[in-house]
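Kindly review both lines to help learners:
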Amino acid sequence: MDFYAVPVSSRLILGTSQYPSPAILADAVKQSGTGIVTVSLRRESGANRSGQDFWQLIQGLGARVLPNTAGCHSVKEAVTTAQMAREVFGTSWIKLEVIGEADTLQPDVFGLVEAARILSADGFEVFPYTTEDLVVAEKLLEAGCKVLMPWGAPIGTGKGLNNVFGLRAMRAHFPDVPLVIDAGLGLPSHAAAAMEMGYDAVLLNTAVARAGDPAAMAAAFAKAVEAGRAAYLAGPMEPRDMAAPSTPVIGKAQLG
């Protein structure tokens, strides 16, 4: 799988916030097998470099860093944060978030498209956190995005795939665009379901960080992602409304 012409070994992308300790975070990343971790600029320091230890930990994990603009509520704030992140983390990749609604953390899709256009023109490779709306998706691609990251459910809820119809439609409408389910997954089965639909990857944080055993949960998600992808490639059977016997009735014994 490639993102912006960069080959990535794992289809699981892991967030790095809310873990009980740095050691648990490092173990979870290792058990997940992920090749990409998301990092918020807010975890890096300002004047006193208080986040330097965290950044050194991330660098030691051996995964590619995907900075994000988490918590940004305006185009200006998101663009400025992305530009700062490029300087701090030394990458043109950015997970773009422009939050429009406080309770659900739903993206402001109008601001998202505007910010994506500005950042793409500035040389960024934008990973937009968006909804499953097909019109918004088209606008993001026109703005320069080459990857789309629709939510499964609101961030941190663990509800899984709230709009299966919409997500299936997005996959069918954009067969050649890398699609990543971002946010709302709570169980490995949710990740497997996304991969069975043909999504290219999943991104999650809270489901692992808040688990009783984050490392074990990370390993479970890794297996679920692999299983879901393998099932998609195998060609799942279509669901039916009526029962169909798995044992043929032709040739069965007749009692007379």
